[in-house]
């Protein structure tokens, strides 16, 4: 009788071990399938969303570097960006595959081609050569305290993946010798926001960049 019970117990133990082994094998198979699935569907540099995020980050850095370099000035000197704003005639320019050409309906007392512009030079040498579309908009404060914007460079509607970088430039009455401030105001519409101080206006330069 004891021998029979021992045999039954051994048989039961063997069966339990087999069931345990089968469960472990099934678990390993499930884990293997999960790992394979995750690796097959995980984001890679070729995945659309990751690639777009990578491009946007690159454009953000590039755009900020462009504005930072334009806004750099040695002590006592105006930055190239500030000079371009002071020299602006109020026209809207578009890249026409060879040069920045003014919208003839908005040209004010100036050539139709953007000349002597550091902004145009750096955008042509970097953005244009890299196939990066771009707009540059100038915003200022009206005497009422509201803001007003006009395009300096306009190359079409940005894509959904466009990035925007900004830089502020302070204009003072002392930046306009003689009667130049009235000519500047007449051409651009940028007014003296405070007649009682040397403060003229605060310009917000907005650069929008996107891949075509």
From TrEMBL:
List where the protein spans the membrane.
Answer: 21-40
Q: Which UniProt keywords apply?
A: Membrane, Transmembrane, Transmembrane helix
One Pfam family per UniProt: DUF7288
Top-level taxon in the UniProt lineage: Archaea
Q: What is this protein called?
A: Uncharacterized protein
Gene source species = Methanolobus halotolerans
